[in-house]
User: What shape does this take?
Amino acid sequence: MMSSIFTFVYAACDLVAIGTGVEVVLGMLRGTLRCKITALFLRYALITNVIGLLFPIPDLLLTQKEQISMVTVYVSGVAILAWRKYDFIGLWRSIFALSTTIVLYLCVLAAIGQVFRHVTLFNALVLREFKSPIFVIHVVVTLFFVVLGTAATSRFHEKTAHVF
Assistant: This one.
């Protein structure tokens, strides 16, 4: 019962983080940054991943979800430092754009993992077509985010970003 509540809250926060993260990254591609949406994105990404770390650990080894959660917390911290402490000065603008894109990427990876873990119909359909569907999806998502991160970093760095 408690695990299902954690899973629901985790999934809901992850979806909010992904939705707001898409808006933040698209804003960086346009050269604008909306502070409220960015704060909401980083807040929900952190909440999601702290919840991910609260799931019971069956043994002492960290699962992939817990590893992703730990990395996301650290990368979110770097984004917050670049934004709030260093005010996008110099290299910190690129660091912010890159770390924000990485946080979004890791949230998407966590959502993909949840879909494969909990949606049996999806699993049955995909497993029939591919031998290793999760690997193929991870490669496609990774390539997409590499291109997206590169574009966001260069465009957010080139333009004088309008922060509002």
In short: The chain has six helices and two strands. The two ends are 42 Å apart (CA to CA). Residues 2-163 form one domain.
